[in-house]
Design brief:
The structure is a single chain. The protein is of the alpha+beta class. The chain has one domain. The chain is 30% helix and 16% strand. It has helices at 14-29, 50-55, and strands at 33-38, 59-64. It is globular, with a radius of gyration of 13 Å.
Length: 74
């Protein structure tokens, strides 16, 4: 399991490059990879791993973007 937090701006910052490298290493050792991305925005714009997900059909990607309007107010 890999858990990693990256920050904006996205695609080419050192955090994003490191994350892509780690995902590729895991992918080389497994036939299939399940990936959960929390805070994915639209999953395309400035997404550091979008190209990796699109290029590898053996990655099951679940992209989640929490929305405040859907949270219950207690």
């Amino acid at each position: 399991m890999l858990a990693y937090k990256i920050t904006a701006p996205g695609m080419n910052d050192p955090d994003a490059i490191y994350l892509k490298t780690k995902i590729k290493e895991i992918f080389l050792n497994d036939d299939k990879l399940n990936l959960l991305q929390i805070g994915a925005n639209d999953g395309i714009s400035a997404d550091p791993i979008y190209d990796l997900i699109i290029d590898n059909k053996m990655i099951n990607a679940y992209l989640i973007e929490p929305q405040k309007k859907w949270l219950l107010n207690y």
